[in-house]
Design goal:
By secondary structure, the protein is an alpha/beta fold. The chain has one domain: TIM Barrel. Helix content is 36%, strand content 18%. It has 10 helices and 14 strands. The strands form 4 sheets. The chain has an 8-stranded parallel barrel, surrounded by 6 helices. It has a two-stranded antiparallel sheet with strand order 1-2. α1 packs across α2 and α5 runs parallel beside α6. The longest helix is centred in the middle third of the chain and has 17 residues. It is globular. This is Possible oxidoreductase (Putative secreted protein). It holds the Pfam family Aldo_ket_red. InterPro entries: AKR, FDH-like, NAD(P)_OxRdtase_dom_sf, NADP_OxRdtase_dom. GO terms for molecular function: oxidoreductase activity.
């Protein structure tokens, strides 16, 4: 599988495994299926794995660490996140987590982008992962915490990188505007943008992607299916967009995209994966998987050929803008 090496060292495969579903996102996933998702991703050539304490209150990190334990550490890249500190909460352990994961609420998530909070969070992540280091650390969703995250938070991560504790640092969010501010004002190596560089939302192209390319900051594209609307060959009537019921207008637009894809022998999900990689700032697309079958499907979709004529027709029809600096062969670095 193609890979890109960031300026400070970490190698990211074009496809990464996002481990939120290993944390029982929305519903339970068995230990067997979780391990199968990691094993199948590995067998497909994936060597970049992304997780976070938020995902299943640590369950994702524990499962990912267990699945990678027998793999040579030098052969893969792991990223995790800080900003939501897990604090034991035995008084709520009998309840179900209210953060979107099917796990007991044995911990609470405290927003904390202080130096102490970041160090404690990273220490907990290393313990759960069973690793002595992670390669990349992101500030996680600091939307309502700009002041602390953009000062103490990012300064702490840069200090850890400069000390050699981690190889690269960045920020992961579901919006593009604040990520652009981090790129502009701080010494981050990469950003993870979720849902804002897709077939249905190109807002990251307005400022974030050009700025990242200019500054040499890598971009990881996540949530390229916009939480489900682009995940099937044809969007179902009950499809979701950004974790909410999709509007009729969005479903109609996805159907129009699917019409063009079919004319070129491409599925909608295949195009959804290929599109973000056309931009020269994008170094990886991260997709979730709940079991081995989904991991294999992700890899097959990445490998599918997407002709340039598809992008030309979508642009001619006004369904998709041209990607500045896109290579002639989709997905290949320029």
């Amino acid at each position: 599988m193609r890979s890109r090496t960031l300026a400070r060292g970490p190698v990211l495969t074009a496809l990464g495994l996002g481990a939120a579903q290993l944390g029982n996102l929305a519903r339970k996933t068995s230990d067997t299926d979780a391990r199968g998702a990691v094993d199948a991703a590995w067998d497909s050539g994936v060597r970049y794995f992304d997780t976070a304490p938020h995902y299943g209150l640590g369950l994702s990190e524990r499962r990912l660490g267990a699945a990678l334990a027998r793999r040579p550490r030098a052969e893969y890249t792991v990223s995790t996140k800080v900003g939501r500190l897990l604090v034991p909460s035995p008084e709520t352990a009998h309840r179900q987590d209210d953060g979107g994961f099917a796990v007991p609420a044995a911990f609470r998530r405290d927003w904390d982008f202080s130096r102490d909070g970041i160090l404690r969070s990273l220490e907990g992540s290393l313990t759960r992962l069973g690793l002595d280091h992670v390669d990349i650390v992101y500030l996680h969703d600091p939307d309502e915490h700009w002041q602390q995250a953009s000062t103490t938070g990012v300064d702490t991560l840069v200090g850890l990188r400069d000390q050699g504790v981690v190889k690269a640092v960045g920020v992961g969010m579901n919006q593009a505007a604040m990520l652009a501010e981090f790129v502009r004002r701080s010494d981050v190596d990469l950003v993870m943008v979720a849902g804002r560089h897709t077939l249905l939302d190109q807002s990251a192209q307005d400022e974030l992607l050009p700025l990242a390319r200019e500054r040499g900051v890598g971009v990881v594209a996540a949530a390229v299916y916009n939480s489900g609307l682009l995940a099937a060959d044809r969007p179902p009537g009950d499809a979701t967009y950004d974790y909410q019921p999709a509007s009729r207008e969005l479903i109609a637009r996805a159907d129009a995209l699917a019409d063009v894809c079919e004319r070129h022998g491409v599925t909608l999900p295949e195009a959804a994966i290929a599109y973000p990689l056309r931009h020269p700032a994008v170094v990886s697309v991260v997709l979730g998987a709940r079991d081995a079958g989904q991991s294999r499907t992700n890899a097959a979709r990445l490998a599918a050929g997407v002709p340039n004529a598809l992008w030309t027709e979508l642009a001619d029809l006004g369904l998709l803008p041209e990607v500045p600096g896109a290579p002639s062969t989709p997905g290949e670095p320029s």
